[in-house]
Structure formats: structure tokens, C-alpha cells
Design goal:
single chain, 648 residues, mainly alpha, 3-stranded antiparallel sheet, 19 strands
Length: 648
């Protein structure tokens, strides 16, 4: 959706003609372009060649503009710059993010919305003065959500779309070709980033249209339109006998079907186009996150299994992984320095970062590092064990490894997804943090109007998830993993502290920074990354934090958990809860699952855990009040429900 000065002028021209009882005829082709773009947006309707009338949605837009001018919210169009984007995909994205955040746009985007008359200063007795989006913004958003654009792609436009980088990319990379970008945005094929349109991308619909074009035969001047889609749907629903001879010849000529009526690759993509265009069936934005220690441990697990071939006694347990790390010089783990620094800062509230940096330079092994910071009380090995186990929980939560019982021990192996990450990314590009915003920069492009904000885009570029206007092989890998993996809920001690401070909505990233010590900003950022990748919250393009339904359940389930409890929700506890739910009986009124004594042994087997691990994590679950003496409590059931939601 795109409305500039010329589009509002065109709408006002049609309105004036209609009020005079005349049809609006546009004689010159050059003058017709804004009118045609409005027709594609379903704001005008073309009755005869170059004769336009207002649609219901067009009348609403004119009424909104008129009222806003009368109230002084915006200047009349005579004062607008010709290229001023009153409404565009980035404005829709800003309104959407604000509405999802309890109508609060936040500082990052509020000036752009105020400039367009869509946000105003509000004063409330209890909350004070703040900026909220107004009813006009919501009306525009409602028009966008309920109106359906037309979709017609000419051969010339198809050539432009076929050869353009799909994005995300900086807008300066967008190929120049007259009004094609405006026409594409009119059909919702192109999206721009908030707040300044610095980044462009083909939308989810635009990407599917590009796939159609790149696989079809452009046999006619119009290569995609609604009639073609309807014919293909008819073929799918009723068979080739339901089509006319002309329809069959047309679909075959465009390479949507073969001579026997089988749907070809271009036809499959055209069906996806129809699904998105007609039903707006876009998948939610999911993301992924890995830190350097997580990736290092993936490598270590494989190395230990190689040793196992020579010595069957050696298997990748937590203890063996810790031992493997400790026997290596710290200089071989340069990429882990920042990770350990963050861990120490979280655990100790460490504020003298220069001293920490100096200590890294002095020490030679990971063992010495942990001895230095935890030598009092002799807890250094336990802390190292906890650090490794937390990373193992993360890897299992993201379905990259799985633990199982072997000869009474908890042993780890890589899943197929873990092997993909190791072979296709880590061994090619080395170890680096994979941030949730960077992966989100790839996945948000599949949505209706989303484009990554500039910070997400730069993170994705720096970690080589995008480049040259395309997602890289790594970008595609992590983008698709976000949807393929089966997540298990996991919360670290520090993430629990963050989650406890978050309301359901009406909150921004800067707010959470202000709720912690100023030295913990980096640690909070990484904590938010993990919470988003786990499916517990969404960070919107305006930097608003909104809890997902799963996040609300997890927050409620852990509301009584002591914040000093390490990994109060983890994949092993989830496996125990899942096993107990299978062998127990649900009592709906009590909101409990009761387990008979004779069924506990069966639950241990179903969990796939060794008895020692089962009992250790069962004790944690009881401290957290997920499990009673012989039952799963309400909090435990909430965790299982959240587990279900994050994998829908």
C-alpha cells in the first residue's frame, strides 16, 4: 500500500467528479499512473478504459485525510513534498508494531507517525504524558487488513521482478525503473523497513511471485493475473475436465501445467501466490540463536564420539565435555572470551571489565580462568560444569542435540539438525554468535509487509546471513531451522530475571535496560535474543517487547520460582513432565495430573533419562513447584502447554 501526494490528488479528483455527477476520465497516459496504482490497491475501480470510480475503501481514505486536515493533524496536500510517503509498507509496519504494543510506538518510530498525523501526545492521570497511535492510524490499519489488492503482472514488470535481488538489501540497491517499485508496493509485493525505508525486501507474496516468474514461460503480455489463478484452482479442485480449451492452452503455454494437466513448478508457486493473496496465510516470524560455547560443544561432542571408537569407555557426558574443554589452552578458544565475560558478568555482577580483560590475557587455560574467579570455596569445577550443562540445555532446547541413557550415564549426540549446523555452517564459516535479530532479518521478509529494521539488517550482514541482496546459504539454513526444529522450553537463571520484569506488552527494549544495572546491557541483549528464539517473546521493528502466548504461560508457571535457581525450566524437566503426563491421570478441576506409585518407573523409561538425572531434575521441578509428591501441579501443566504452543 502506497499513498503519496499524487495518489491523494487522484482520489480527490475522482471524488469531485462523482459529487458533480460525472465519471472521472483520464485522457493522458502519464496522468493515469497514480489512478492505475490506486486501482491495484482497491481504492479506485476502472469501469471503462481510463474511467475511474471510488471504491468503499477509497472513500474511507478520502474521509480520513479530510478529517485529519480539518483537525490540524496533517497539512493539506498542497504543502506536501511530491515524494512524501504518507502511507507505505513501512508506515503499516509501524502502526502494526504500535497496536501490538498497547498502542505505544516508542521513540524509534513515533516521530515518523506524528509527522503523518497517526500518533499524538496523550495525558493520563496515572501514567502521565506519552505518545500513542490514534484512531486514524487504526482505521488505516483496518483498511489495509481488510482490502485486497489486485494482482496483475505484465511481461515488462515480470522481467524487472525476475532480475532484482529479493532482499533484504539497502534501498540504494533497488533497481531503477520508472514507477515499477511503486506499482509493486501497490500490489504489496515490496516492503520497506521502519522508520526511514533504509532497507527493502520482496514481501512474502513478492517472493512467491518472483518464483513463479523465474519458472514460467512468459508467453503473453500479461504473465500473472487473477484469472490464471482461478483457472489453476479450478483444475486443482475439479480436474482438467472442468477447464475450457482456452484455459488449458493458456496454462500450458505459460508452463503452469503440462499437456496432461499436471501442475508444474511455476504452477505450484502460483498456487502459493493465490494462498497468500486470497487468504493472507503468512507464517509467524520465528528466529534462532546460538552462542560460541554452544557451537564449540557441538564440535566437542563429535570429537568425543571419535575417541569412543578407540576407547568404548569414553562417551560425551557432561563430565567428559568439561574435561575436554579444560585440557585445551585458552588461546585456542579466543572466540569464547566474550562468552565467558558475559557469563561472569551475569554470575558475579562483575563491573571492572578492564580487569576482566586483563585477566584473560594473563591466563593460559579455561581451568585457570574458572579457578581465579571461583577459587573461594573450591567451586570452580562446579561452575564450569554448570556453564557447560547450561549450553547443553540450550542445544537440546533447539533440537541440535539429544541426550539419552547409556549404561546408566546421560550421553549426548547430534541430531540431524545439529549435523547440518556443524557441517554446513560452523565448518565453513567458523564459530561466531548467531543472533536472533540476524536470523529474524531473513525470516521477516516472508511476511505480509515486514522488512528488517536497519539494526537487524546490519547484524545479519555482519554474520554473513545476508549479502548482495540475498540470504546467504547460512541465512537460509538458520532461517529454515527456525521452523523445522522442535523446541523444548528452557530458561536460564538470568533469563528468568528478565522474564519476571516483562509485562505482556507496552514495554520497550530501553525499558528493560533501565531495570538492570547499567553494566549488564550486553548480557540483557543476549538474554532477550535467547528468549525470542525460544518463542517466549517477540521484539518488534520498533524495539517493543511483546510476550507471546507461550511466554505468558511460562511467566505464570515460573512466577513463584526463586530467581537463584539455575535453569529452572530446561529440556530434561520438560521430558520428565511429558513422561509423567503420559502415565498419570488428569484431574481437570484440581488442575493436576496424579501419578500412581507403580507408574514412576515407567515414567523414567519414557523420559529416556538415567535414574540419577531423572531424580536430580525431579528435585529441581519440585523446588519450582511444577511437581508435587505424586502429581504434576498447575505450573507444570502450563509448561507443557507452552511446549505445545512454541511448536505449532
Amino acid at each position: 500500500m502506497i499513498l503519496r501526494k499524487e495518489h491523494i490528488n487522484a482520489l480527490l479528483t475522482v471524488k469531485a467528479e462523482e459529487e458533480s455527477g460525472r465519471a472521472c476520465y483520464i485522457k493522458l497516459h502519464a496522468e493515469s499512473e497514480p489512478f492505475i496504482e490506486l486501482e491495484f490497491q482497491n481504492l479506485l475501480e476502472q469501469r471503462n478504459p481510463l474511467e475511474f470510480v471510488m471504491t468503499y475503501w477509497g472513500k474511507r481514505i478520502v474521509n480520513i485525510y479530510t478529517e485529519m486536515v480539518e483537525k490540524g493533524l496533517i497539512d493539506p496536500i498542497s504543502d506536501w513534498d511530491d515524494r512524501f510517503r504518507w502511507i507505505g509498507s513501512e508506515i503499516i509496519a509501524m502502526i502494526d508494531a504500535s497496536v501490538r504494543n498497547d498502542d505505544l510506538p516508542g521513540k524509534y518510530i513515533q516521530d515518523e507517525l506524528i509527522k503523518r498525523g497517526f500518533a499524538q501526545q496523550i495525558k493520563e492521570e496515572k501514567k502521565g504524558t506519552f505518545i500513542k497511535v490514534n484512531e486514524y492510524a487504526k482505521e488505516i490499519y483496518n483498511i489495509y487488513k481488510n482490502s485486497r489488492p489486485r494482482l496483475t503482472i505484465s511481461k515488462d514488470l515480470a522481467h524487472y521482478i525476475s532480475n532484482m535481488p529479493p532482499g533484504p538489501a539497502e534501498t540504494s540497491m533497488l533497481p531503477e525503473h520508472g514507477r515499477f517499485p511503486i506499482l509493486m508496493e501497490s500490489m504489496r509485493l515490496l516492503s520497506f523497513s521502519v522508520p526511514q525505508s533504509d532497507v527493502y525486501t520482496l514481501s512474502g507474496l513478492g517472493q512467491e511471485v518472483q518464483q513463479v516468474i523465474q519458472n514460467m514461460a512468459p508467453a503473453f503480455e500479461t504473465v500473472i493475473n487473477e484469472d490464471y489463478m482461478y483457472s489453476l484452482i479450478k483444475l486443482l479442485d475439479k480436474g482438467i475436465s472442468a477447464l475450457t480449451t482456452d484455459e488449458i492452452e493458456l496454462l500450458e503455454a505459460l508452463a503452469f501445467i503440462d499437456k496432461d494437466g499436471n501442475i508444474l513448478k511455476a504452477g505450484e508457486h502460483l498456487l502459493h501466490v493465490y494462498h497468500l493473496w486470497n487468504e493472507k496465510a503468512y507464517r509467524p516470524v520465528k528466529t534462532f540463536n546460538l552462542e560460541t560455547l554452544d557451537e564449540e560443544i557441538l564440535k566437542i561432542i563429535v570429537e568425543i564420539w571419535k575417541k569412543h571408537e578407540q576407547n568404548p569407555e569414553i562417551v560425551p557426558t557432561v563430565e567428559e565435555i568439561v574435561h575436554y574443554l579444560l585440557e585445551k589452552p585458552l588461546k585456542e578458544y579466543k572466540h569464547l572470551k566474550e562468552f565467558y565475560g558475559r557469563q561472569l558478568n551475569q554470575a558475579l555482577g562483575y563491573q571492572k571489565k578492564e580487569e576482566l580483560k586483563k585477566k584473560f590475557e594473563e591466563l593460559f587455560t579455561v581451568e585457570e580462568l574458572f579457578k581465579h574467579f571461583w577459587e573461594k570455596g573450591g567451586q570452580w569445577y562446579e561452575k564450569m560444569y554448570d556453564t557447560v550443562e547450561e549450553s547443553l540445555f540450550t542445544l537440546e532446547a533447539f533440537d541440535l542435540i539429544v541426550s539419552h541413557e547409556q549404561n546408566g550415564k546421560r550421553v549426548y549426540k547430534l541430531t540431524e539438525y545439529g549435523k547440518e549446523v556443524l557441517l554446513e555452517d560452523i565448518k565453513v564459516h567458523g564459530i561466531r554468535d548467531i543472533h536472533a535479530p540476524a536470523v529474524k532479518a531473513v525470516n521477516i521478509t516472508k511476511t505480509e509487509f515486514g522488512a528488517p529494521n536497519y539494526q537487524w539488517y546490519k547484524e545479519a550482514e555482519e554474520t554473513h546471513l545476508i549479502g548482495g541482496g540475498y540470504p546467504t546459504k547460512s541465512g537460509k539454513l538458520y532461517g529454515e531451522l527456525s521452523y523445522k526444529i522442535k523446541r523444548k522450553p528452557h530458561l536460564t537463571r538470568f533469563e528468568l530475571q528478565i522474564l519476571h520484569k516483562l509485562p505482556e506488552k507496552g514495554y520497550l527494549v530501553d525499558d528493560i535496560y533501565n531495570d538492570f544495572d547499567e553494566t549488564l546491557k550486553e548480557e540483557i541483549e543476549f538474554g532477550l535474543n535467547k528468549l525470542e528464539a525460544r518463542g517466549f517473546l517477540d521484539i518488534l521493528p520498533n524495539n517493543a517487547i511483546v510476550l507471546t502466548e507461550a511466554g505468558k504461560l511460562i511467566k505464570k508457571a515460573t512466577s513463584g520460582v526463586p530467581e537463584g535457581l539455575g535453569n529452572p525450566v530446561n529440556p530434561l524437566i520438560v521430558r520428565i513432565l511429558e513422561a509423567l503426563a503420559k502415565v498419570g491421570n488428569l484431574y481437570v478441576k484440581e488442575e493436576k495430573v496424579r501419578i500412581l506409585p507403580k507408574n514412576w518407573e515407567q515414567a523414567i523409561k519414557l523420559s529416556g533419562l538415567d535414574k540419577e538425572t531423572f531424580e536430580k531434575e525431579l528435585a529441581v521441578a519440585r523446588i519450582a513447584n511444577y511437581i508435587g509428591k505424586s502429581s504434576i501441579n498447575e505450573a507444570g501443566l502450563l509448561i507443557l502447554k507452552a511446549y505445545e504452543l512454541i511448536n505449532q
